[in-house]
Amino acid sequence: MELHEVLRRRAMCRSFSAQPVDSAVLDRILEGALSAPTAGNTRGTSWVVLEGADQTSTYWDSATDEAWRDRNAAWSGGLRRAPVVLLAYSSPEAYVERYAEPDKVDLELGAGPERWPVPYWHGDAAFGVMAVLLGAVDAGLGACVLGAFRGTENLGARLAVPPEWRLFCAVPLGHPDGRGHRSRSLQRDTPQQSERLHRRAW
Q: Each residue of 135-155: b (16+ CB within 10 Å) or e?
């Protein structure tokens, strides 16, 4: 699919069928995620791939609770049907170590994550997630982003994630079932381009 068409069609899908994702298609999407840029070529991002209900339930059981499921009962079932859940992780420690190396040391970011005014590990994880979202559109699939708001330590322990890695978000992935839940966020007014694009100066 042509790039601008992919960008135009990208939207969050929140209701999936249980139809499996072809393994070759999934591998191509993950290859795109791993090709996303990382600062200093640190490659301090990683993914945990959960496929099938037995594996994805580990995520849902850790990241949601009864109160969340009750509040979101109208659409949480459609999310849980996603046959794949991709977990985007990043390691602040990897970036601190990389920027303590001779070619980066003059930036003084190698002393610890608190020295970073902008944590590159978040941006790099987001680059990989965007690659997944665009790859899903290109493959005729749906995907969405779920924040890491609860249960991250329990999830990491259940998946044997090393403690220095932080969950950035989860990306449910699969075939849309056509019963998509329209996000309440889309009811907000859309700013004009002129309110967001500032040429020469703000």
A: bbbbbebbbbbbebeebbeeb
